[in-house]
C-alpha cells in the first residue's frame, strides 16, 4: 500500500500494463509503412495532376497558335478584298466620263463597302469567338477532370 502526497486515500494492488517492445516496434513499423504508402499515393496524384496540367497548357498554346492563324487569315482576307475593291473602284472612277458618274460610282462603292465591312466584322467576331472557345477548352476540360477526381 502506498500513499499519495496530500491525499488520504490509498492505492492497493495497482497493476501497470507491461511494456512490450516487440509490439511497439511492430506498431511503429506499421505507422511508418502507412505514411510511406500515403506519401507515394500523394506524389503519384501530384505527378499525374502536373502532367495533366502540362498537357492542357500545351494544348492551349497549340490551339492559340492555330486559332491565332485563323483570325489572322480572316483579317488578311478582309484586307485583300477591300484592297481589290478599292483598286476596282479607282479604275471605274478613272474611266468615268462625267462628274455625276463619279459621284454615282462613289455612292455605290461606299454603300457596298459599308455592307461588306459589317459582314467582315461579323465574320471576324465569329472567328474570334471560336478562337476563345477553342483556346479555353483544354484548360476547362483539365479543370473539370480535377474537380471530378476530387
TrEMBL record:
Protein name: Phasin
Domain Phasin: 70-142
Top-level taxon of origin: Bacteria
Region annotation (Disordered) ranges: 1-24
Amino acid at each position: 500500500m502506498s500513499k499519495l502526497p496530500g491525499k488520504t486515500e490509498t492505492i492497493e494492488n495497482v497493476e501497470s500494463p507491461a511494456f512490450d517492445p516487440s509490439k511497439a516496434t511492430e506498431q511503429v513499423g506499421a505507422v511508418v509503412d502507412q505514411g510511406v504508402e500515403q506519401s507515394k499515393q500523394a506524389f503519384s496524384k501530384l505527378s499525374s495532376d502536373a502532367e495533366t496540367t502540362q498537357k492542357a497548357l500545351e494544348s492551349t498554346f497549340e490551339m492559340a497558335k492555330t486559332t491565332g492563324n485563323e483570325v489572322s487569315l480572316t483579317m488578311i482576307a478582309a484586307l485583300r478584298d477591300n484592297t481589290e475593291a478599292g483598286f476596282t473602284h479607282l479604275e471605274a472612277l478613272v474611266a468615268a466620263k462625267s462628274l455625276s458618274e463619279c459621284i454615282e460610282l462613289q455612292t455605290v462603292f461606299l454603300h457596298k463597302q459599308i455592307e461588306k465591312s459589317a459582314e467582315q466584322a461579323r465574320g471576324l467576331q465569329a472567328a474570334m469567338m471560336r478562337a476563345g472557345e477553342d483556346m479555353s477548352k483544354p484548360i476547362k476540360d483539365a479543370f473539370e477532370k480535377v474537380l471530378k477526381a476530387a
